[in-house]
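re: ur question from earlier - yeah i can do the single chain one, its not a big deal. heres the input i used so u can compare w yours
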Amino acid sequence: MLYLRKSEDRGYAEFGGWLKSRHTFSFSEYYDPQFMGFRDLRVINQDWIAKDSGFPLHPHRDMEIITYVLSGTVEHRDSLGNVGQITAGEIQTMHAGTGIRHSEYNPSKTDDLRLFQIWIVPDTVGAKPGYTQQSFTREQKLNQFKLLVSKDGRDESQKIHQDVDLYASVFEAGTEREFIFRPGRGGWLQLAEGEVEVNGKLLKSGDALAIQEEGAVKIKALQETEFLLFDLH
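and the output i got, formated as tokens:
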């Protein structure tokens, strides 16, 4: 079964001119009982943050939070004392666990920031809070599935407290690859930009595809395309 989640059907929020956000699943003031998450995937927000703006210090707990930067730079500060700047091609992973406070800011005076913020429900309640960031090159993602996040940290991926594999890909036009799921697994493909066909379904920038009981998907890029692919138990 494949379900196409069109970009324009997502929730939308705009705050004070500094933030525009598309919500794939119910989040904050956007509520749709049909879209409360998918398996252990709870949030995918596509955010546009204006220059010299950002989220002030705020709390989280018992959630795995992943930020994937599409363009620009996000500056992270948290209550554990971590300070870092994450640029396009990098991700940060935060284990909220028993509680953590953090801020996210666009330090640029000239450029907007675009990113995906992702929440995954953990398999462990009350874990020790933590934070990591890691860089992945375009070449590592080019025309292949590059593992960014996993339960076991294999292939130099970042470890999280859940049996979820997160891949990132940049496909050149005409590239076609097959992704095979383990039995009983499901998938979520989130397109950042470009245009692809997945088992005959056409996706355009911002669209997503829920994948259930397919076993495998064939992904063909119709133009240069960047996307995230979640393999979920």
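Helices lie at 138-141. not sure if urs matches, ping me
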